[in-house]
Write a structure and sequence with these properties.
The complex is a heterotrimer of chains A (about 220), B (about 130) and C (about 300).
Chain A lengths: L1 E5 L2 H8 L4 E7 L2 H4 L5 H17 L5 E7 L5 H5 L2 H5 L3 E4 L3 H10 L5 E3 L1 E11 L2 E6 L15 H4 L17 E2 L2 E5 L1 H11 L4 H4 L22
Parallel strand pairs in A: 2-3, 2-4, 4-5
Antiparallel strand pairs in A: 1-6, 6-7, 8-9
Chain B lengths: L6 E6 L3 H10 L8 E6 L7 H9 L4 E7 L9 H18 L7 E6 L4 H18 L1
Parallel strand pairs in B: 1-2, 1-3, 3-4
Helix pairs in contact in B: 1-4, 2-3
Chain C lengths: L4 H7 L3 E6 L8 H10 L5 E4 L11 H10 L4 E6 L5 H13 L4 E5 L20 H12 L16 E6 L7 H13 L3 E6 L3 H14 L4 E6 L5 H10 L7 H9 L5 H18 L5 E5 L7 H7 L3
Parallel strand pairs in C: 1-2, 1-8, 2-3, 3-4, 4-5, 5-6, 6-7, 7-8
Helix pairs in contact in C: 5-6, 6-7, 8-9, 10-11
The chains are: A alpha/beta (about 220), B alpha/beta (about 130), C alpha/beta (about 300).
């Protein structure tokens, strides 16, 4: 799932400075689950902006909305009436959502209230961990299901590097496990260490040419 | 008395509300700019409730629940504590002193404590001015 | 002119290399001083490449200086800052200017350095880099195109004998040996028993490769603790920290040199490895003292 985090309020205020009527729009999918841009977060951000603008004696009127998936044209279209009433849109969608809104309503400035961070999963309550780098050339069959591209700080295919800390922690962060030590332990558990002993050639970093395009066929 | 903005006190029915009630019956005087809102549990109060209270002109918010470990709904007061902390940060970010929202824990007969907390919040608001 | 490193590796019993740290700037005066001081006392002279991800004068440039002053340079290439095109191009240039030895490294992570917002490259890892140099040596580039003018590098790599856990490192080490390297310069060695075990494993995999133990003198208990915490791949054991703590004030550097020399003597005397690689960055002018104390 896509994980995003809300930008600091100061940064958001600077983006919308000068606009007096805005629409704050959230997304009901990934960013709702990771507590960044769902209905509650739209309410909270709008409330904060009103409190701040009252204090600073700025005029600011806010419309609020949530779209089920902000990356879908048809769903974003539903916002048209509201968008017409405002000068700018503040989107709490991920990068794909913000751009979809910006593409549909080309005559309105659209601002991102979130920083989209990664594809990940919940490690604990509200704690999200990066799992996948969307590299387009999945290597997980060879590493016992642990991605070396994003979970190894250097993205090595033949790891580990010589910088591993004591106890199998990563060079860049003593709290972070060295992905290749994790891979070693996983493959050892499964009796498949020969996979780690193999030499892997340089990665095809153009497996997905950016910006990526995939044409799928419905079954 | 100098005019101070309203204080909203979300009071849990099992504890704080009873304490407030007792203060009333014992005729202990406390400032009259308090609005007591009875909730089934402090955990019912959301972050947005707190922010909206300030939006609507409150100068301070108290979230009053059962004592730690005594919540009838088990984790309601613990959740409330976390939400109040989060709300304080959000208020601070928006330019409002985060100490204007506070979580307080009660037993049902703590009438004096109820009055004390109200008075303290009034003082804090006055100082802020 | 200095003897080619490849030859020295084949003929000399105990090989000695050292490392010089480049300047952060274009003023190469001090570097040239270090080069002049060390070039005739060691069999090969490495220059680090943006070591610890701190931006400095490049290894390639420094190796040219070594060549110009009659020394035998060992070029260090990391995968952190250059993609496969840049690496191949740099190697062609290096060879054309008489630089024949290359140490293939992954590279420290960006986070430990002084440009923490830079984009890390890591297009290749160190094993792929070794294979790449072998491919260039065979007259082709990485995608199979013929080279007009080939190269013939003596290839080296690093190893970390003190890693914990050691097993994943040994797997990586074997891959490097299988990729075909002529020499290994290890990370700092302090525990000789541990190092002997590592050498046993190395000899089983490849009898031919020359292994040079990394020697990093530690000059104080505080420095040792700092290195343990902040420098990737270094583990100074407690008994050395204790020995340093007991040294009288102001004698830290001499103590560090004494400990290092003692280790080198033992490695040479007991034929534990094929030589040493001395890294005394910031105190290059004291390297001759280590060599003298070690009887080299």
């Amino acid at each position: 799932m896509i994980i995003a985090e809300r930008k600091p309020l100061e940064e958001i205020k600077n983006m919308i400075a000068g606009y007096k009527r805005i629409l704050v729009v959230g997304c009901g999918t990934c960013v709702t689950i990771c507590w960044a841009g769902g209905e509650k977060e739209v309410g909270i951000l709008s409330s904060q902006l009103r409190l701040a603008s009252n204090k600073e004696e700025n005029e600011l009127s806010i419309l609020e909305a949530v779209v089920e998936r902000q990356c879908e044209k048809e769903m974003v279209e539903e916002l048209r009436d509201k968008v017409q009433e405002v000068e700018a849109v503040l989107s709490l969608g991920c990068g794909a959502g913000v751009q979809t809104v910006a593409d549909i309503f080309e005559d309105k400035p659209v601002f991102p209230a979130l920083n989209t961070a990664f594809i990940g999963m919940p490690e604990g309550e509200g704690l999200w961990t990066e799992m996948c780098g969307a590299c387009g050339d999945c290597f997980l069959d060879r590493t016992g299901g642990i991605c070396p591209i994003v979970r190894c700080a250097k993205g090595l295919l033949n790891g580990p590097c010589g910088g591993t800390r004591k106890g199998g922690k990563c060079e860049i962060d003593p709290e972070k496990d060295c992905a290749w030590v994790l891979i070693y332990r996983r493959l050892e558990k499964q009796g498949r260490l020969e996979l780690m002993r193999k030499y892997y050639e340089a990665k095809n970093y153009r497996a997905v040419k950016r910006p990526g395009k995939v044409q799928a066929v419905q079954a | 008395m100098e005019k101070v903005g309203k204080i909203i006190a979300f009071c849990c029915a099992e504890s704080a509300y009873r304490a407030a009630d007792r203060a009333g019956r014992l005729r202990i005087r406390y400032p009259d700019n308090v609005r007591v809102i009875r909730v089934p549990c402090a955990g019912r109060v959301s972050v947005l409730h707190i922010l909206k209270a300030f939006e609507k002109g409150a100068a301070g918010v108290l979230v009053m629940g059962c004592q730690e470990g005594a919540c009838q709904h088990l984790t309601g007061n613990a959740r409330a504590k976390e939400r109040v902390k989060y709300a304080a940060n959000l208020l601070q970010e928006a330019g409002i002193d985060g100490e204007r929202v506070k979580m307080v824990n009660f037993g049902p007969d703590m009438a004096q404590k109820f009055v004390r907390e109200i008075k303290e919040m009034v003082e804090k608001i006055k100082e802020g001015k | 002119m200095a003897k080619p490193f490849r030859e020295t590796l084949e003929t000399k019993d105990f090989v000695v290399t050292a490392e010089a740290g480049p300047v952060k700037g274009s003023n190469v005066t001090k570097m040239i001083e270090h080069i002049e001081l060390l070039k005739d006392r060691v069999d090969g002279l490495n220059v680090t490449d943006n070591q610890s991800s701190v931006m400095r004068y490049p290894s390639l440039g420094a190796c040219l200086l070594i060549k110009e002053h009659g020394g035998e340079p060992i070029l260090q290439i990391t995968c952190r800052d250059r993609n496969r095109l840049a690496i191949q191009a740099d190697l062609l240039f290096a060879y054309s200017r008489g630089i024949n030895n290359v140490l293939c490294l992954t590279g420290d992570s960006i986070d430990v350095g002084d440009h923490k917002e830079a984009k890390p490259v890591f297009d290749l890892d160190s094993v792929q880099l070794i294979h790449l140099v072998r491919t260039l040596n065979s007259g082709k580039d990485m995608t199979g195109n013929e080279l007009d003018g080939g190269v013939d590098f003596c290839i080296g790599a690093s190893a970390t004998p003190s890693a914990d856990p050691i097993e994943p490192q040994l797997i990586k080490f074997e891959k490097k040996l299988n990729a075909g390297v002529g020499f290994i310069q290890t990370q700092a060695v302090y525990d000789l028993d541990e190092f002997k075990r590592f050498m046993e494993h190395a000899r089983k995999t490849d009898r031919e490769v020359k292994i040079l133990a990394g020697i990093v003198p530690v000059i104080g208990a505080k420095m040792a603790a700092y290195m343990n915490e902040n420098v990737p791949g270094i583990f100074v054991p407690q008994y050395i920290i204790d020995e340093l703590a007991q040294a009288p004030k102001g004698t830290g550097v001499s103590k560090g040199i004494e400990i290092a020399a003692r280790m080198i003597r033992q490695m040479k005397g007991e034929k534990i490895c094929d030589g040493v690689h001395i890294m005394f960055i910031g105190r290059e002018e004291r390297v001759p003292d280590i060599l003298e104390a070690a009887g080299l």
